[in-house]
Every structure is written in structure tokens, then in C-alpha cells.
Amino acid sequence: MRTVSLKLLTIIVVTLLFSGCSTQFGYRFADTYLEYQLGKYVDLDDPLAGDVSASIDALHQWHAQTQMPAYADFLTELINAVENDRIDAQQLNQFADDAYRFWHTIRLEIEPYAQHYLPQLSAAQRAQFITKMREQITEERVEELAQEPRKRQRERFQRTIDRAEEWLGRLAPEQERLLHRWMEQRERNDELWHRYQMQWLDSFERTIKNPSAEDFSASLEQLITNPEQFRSEELQQSSDYNRALTIEFFVAIYATMSVEQKRKVRNKLADYRELVTDIHKDYAD
């Protein structure tokens, strides 16, 4: 879900791993950036704004102290798999499940903050919150539809080539063919994801409209920790198909990798491990 809670995750985790050499410096200011992002959704008044700021600081500290070591261990497992040529479908499925658990752990950590702060918002603030979230989802969908399909497909392919070459260096012709076939075979389920997001948001809106409701706490917990319940069967089947296809693609492309490409992947993973380890040390005290 593209909710505020998962924006926190995206900013802290995904940006951390993929934003380059300035990441460690930027991570120090993640709490400030999160406050800025939250401010785009709802206007907070004192003293609530100060309380929220302190809670974001606490969340940031928790993440650095407890999650960075978990990421380092995960990266070590990836490195060992590459070094020992243990890249197969079973291993990659396990890595995918492990990565998902990182997302779920942060959802669980964020949920009590939502329980604490959402009831403190005024009716006008809660309405503003929903309106901004709905606007963002709609704007993202409009931007997707505004692009000519073939042009969008070409751009996606080029972006994917660029990402692959960041990890492997120049791709061999067979690797490009595998990548192109994978992208061609993937199911396009953007519309299904959009419906899922809107269904989640509709339920979220109904829940936070009445914080005094008897089932408010239980409903909010499910919305944050288990948003997948709003996925349609069609979306779930499509997602499962795409995951299996992606695992198959990674196994196939790994079989084509040269010794130098494997070394490059291993070194890149080691760089990220060093990064998350250094960040953990910065926040250890």
C-alpha cells in the first residue's frame, strides 16, 4: 500500500539500499524528511506536532538499532549464496520471503503510533489526511495512463537494463534476451493494484472517521499490518504468477553470469553490508 506508514518504510529501507554513496549521510536526516512528508498529508498543531516529531525520532532510532543488523545478516546470506553458487528457485523464494518479513516488522512497529495519534486528530485533520492520500493515488494513476503504452514499455525496459548493468556491468546478448522475455511475459496488473489501493483507502477512511467505535483499534491494526486482505483473488494470482516468473528469470540469468559478473554482484552486496553495519554503529549508543 502507498500509505503514510509504508512511505516510512520506503524512505528508510529502499532509499537506504539504492540511493548511492551519500546514503549514510542522508539517513541521519531521515526523521526530518519523514516529518516533511507527513506534513504534506496533514497540518499538525502544537503540542501534537512536537509529540509526533519525538515519535518519528524514536522510530528512526529503533530502525537503526534493530533492523540494520538484520539487514546485514540478510546481505551476508546473499553473499554466501553467490560465493557458493547456491542460487536456485528454492533459495530465491526464501530470500523473497525474508525480505517481505522486513516490511512486516516495520508495519508492526508503526501500528501502535497510528493507534495513538489518529484518534487525536480532529475530524477536519482526518478528512484532510484522506483527501491527500486519495489525491496521490489518483495522480499516480493518471500519470501512468497519460503515457503512450509502447513508450512506457520502452522506458521500463531501458530502466531495467540500466539497473541490471549497475549490478552486472555490460549485459551479454543472451542476458538481454532473457530480460526482454521476462518483461514481455510479466502480467500488467496496474489496474488491479489501483483498485486494491482504493479499496484499502475506502476502508481506512471508514475506520478513522469514528475513532470511538468499539472495533476501531482492531480494524486499524488489520489495515496496517495486513493490507493484503484487500487484494482481489485476481490480483493475488497475478502477483503469484509474476513472482514465480521473476524467480525463474533470476535463476536463468544467474546461469549466464561470468565469473567477473558474479564478483561484481558479490562486491556490491558487500558494500551495502558495510553501509548498514556502519549506520548501526552510528546509532548504537
Note the main sheet: none
Mean pLDDT across residues: 87
Q: Assign the structural class, choosing from mainly alpha, mainly beta, alpha/beta, alpha+beta, or little secondary structure.
A: mainly alpha
Helix content: over 70%
Number of helical regions: 12
What is the count of β-strands? 0
- Number of self-contained structural domains: 1
What pattern of helices and strands is seen along the backbone?
A: HHHHHHHHHHHH
Rg over CA atoms, rounded to whole Å, is: 21 Å
Strand content: under 5%
Apparent shape: globular
Query: In whole angstroms, how far apart are the ends?
Result: 33 Å
Key traits:
disordered N terminus; 80% helix; mainly alpha; 285 residues
Secondary-structure topology with pairs:
Elements: H1 4-18, H2 23-27, H3 30-39, H4 48-83, H5 89-117, H6 123-146, H7 149-168, H8 173-185, H9 190-208, H10 216-225, H11 233-256, H12 259-282
